[in-house]
Amino acid sequence: MITSQGFGMGALVNVDWKMRKELGMIMRQSRGYFWMVKRLSDGKTLLVPERDMEVLSPARPAAK
């Protein structure tokens, strides 16, 4: 699923994490407005609310 804001699997996002910006990629939607995001600096998976993310490169639909 891809939302109108561009959130979806594979989207490149800027995440507000502990008072600083982190670059990450959305892995999957967890529940409601929470997303599992893989932080690119160290590969750690974070559970992030949608309101704390900014889409840099929107998700693309899967090729058929």
Topology:
Blueprint: E1 12-17, E2 20-29, E3 34-39, E4 45-49, E5 53-57
Antiparallel strand pairs: 1-2, 1-5, 2-3, 3-4
Keywords:
globular; 5 strands; mainly beta; five-stranded antiparallel sheet; 64 residues; 50% strand; 0% helix
Describe this structure in words.
The model has no long low-confidence stretch (mean pLDDT 84). The radius of gyration is 11 Å and the shape is globular. The two termini are 15 Å apart. The chain has strands at residues 12-17, 20-29, 34-39, 45-49, 53-57. It has a five-stranded antiparallel beta sheet with strand order 4-3-2-1-5, with no helix packed on it. 0% of the residues lie in helices and 50% in strands. With 64 residues, it is mainly β.
Give a brief outline of the structure.
With 64 residues, this protein is mainly beta. 0% of the residues lie in helices and 50% in strands. It is globular and about 40 Å long.
Poorly predicted runs are: none
What would you call the structural class? Answer: mainly beta
Assign an overall shape: globular
On the 0 to 100 scale, the average pLDDT is 84
Q: How much β-strand is present in the residues? A: over 45%
Distance from first to last alpha carbon: 15 Å
Helix content: under 10%
Number of helices: 0
Give the spatial strand order of the biggest sheet. 4-3-2-1-5
Strand segment tally: 5
The SSE string, one letter per element, is EEEEE
Radius of gyration, in angstroms, nearest whole number? 11 Å
Report the sheet with the most strands, covering strand number, pairing sense and barrel closure.
5 strands, antiparallel
